[in-house]
Amino acid sequence: MPVQFICNRIIHMDITSYIEDNRKKIDGFLKKYISAKKRNNDCPKELAEAMSYALMAGGKRVRPILAIASYEAVGGRSKGILNVASALELIHTYSLVHDDLPAMDDDDLRRNKPTTHRVFGEATAILAGDALLTDAFHIISTSDGDPKKLITVIEELSHACGPEGMVGGQEVDILLEGKKGSKKDVLYIHTHKTGAFIRGAVRVGALMGGASRKRLDALTEYGEKTGLAFQVIDDILDITGTKAEIGKSTGADAAKGKNTYPSAFGLEKSREIADNLIKEAVHALADFNKNADPLREIARYILSRRN
Ligand code: GRG
Fold first, then answer.
1. pTM of the entire structure?
2. Closest ligand 1 atom to the C-alpha of 104?
């Protein structure tokens, strides 16, 4: 059964326009950030151009949108959420620029365009990634909002994206390339390389919104399940060919000897796992009111995504 037909629930709200409206706000923030960078004489022009090229290449902005939706789900009112959410996209962009490097995945295309290192060279691409990561924490630390909350956000993100999170997952992914990892290895890779940051994005929104412990726990479960499902769907799309629409060849993960859910569990079982994860993610929000509808619909959208 094609992935997009697995989840046949009724859509309760217009999630497409919710995503589009928030994407515009995030892109507006990122445009201002990158124009200031290009005008700043202390930032070398070539570096600013490489950062701009990577950041403004048309990403879906999934992590910032999740942070905003999580913030709204707990009735967040304090300022600074747009800055903090947009900073997540700088971290995400850094991870993609580095992931594409010859020393890692050695990819020529990202989002149907030449990768940053293909255009600007390896050294500038590495430095553009470093600069985006560092600036993300600068943006958060200078955002409006309660300084205690901002420190908690920094702590959350440094953990989610560091050696016990995304970087750790990437390390194991690379170490096991071409080797047959166990199901436990695949779970580690997916929950850390992709899952930890998505869980972190949801938690960051909740922390900025002043969530109670109970609500934070529920949102953490939502983020964990959605984050893992996101990577399982990505693995499935690699095989079913729909990523070819964004310039990736079908079966690229298998060709590189990557450990994926379909390689460990088979395609049908992987679809079933993704479907169940999304059901569990939505169930975790059972005690939330309609303010959490965007999160519920984003989870379903992730299941039906094609790129
Ligand atoms: C280099 C430290 C370091 C980490 C890299 C994120 C990551 C870890 C690797 C990316 C490899 C990859 C393509 C994983 C699949 C899931 C994923 C994170 C896809 C890209 O995220 P999207 O779909 O990208 O949100 P867009 O293009 O929409 O921004």
1. 0.93
2. 1
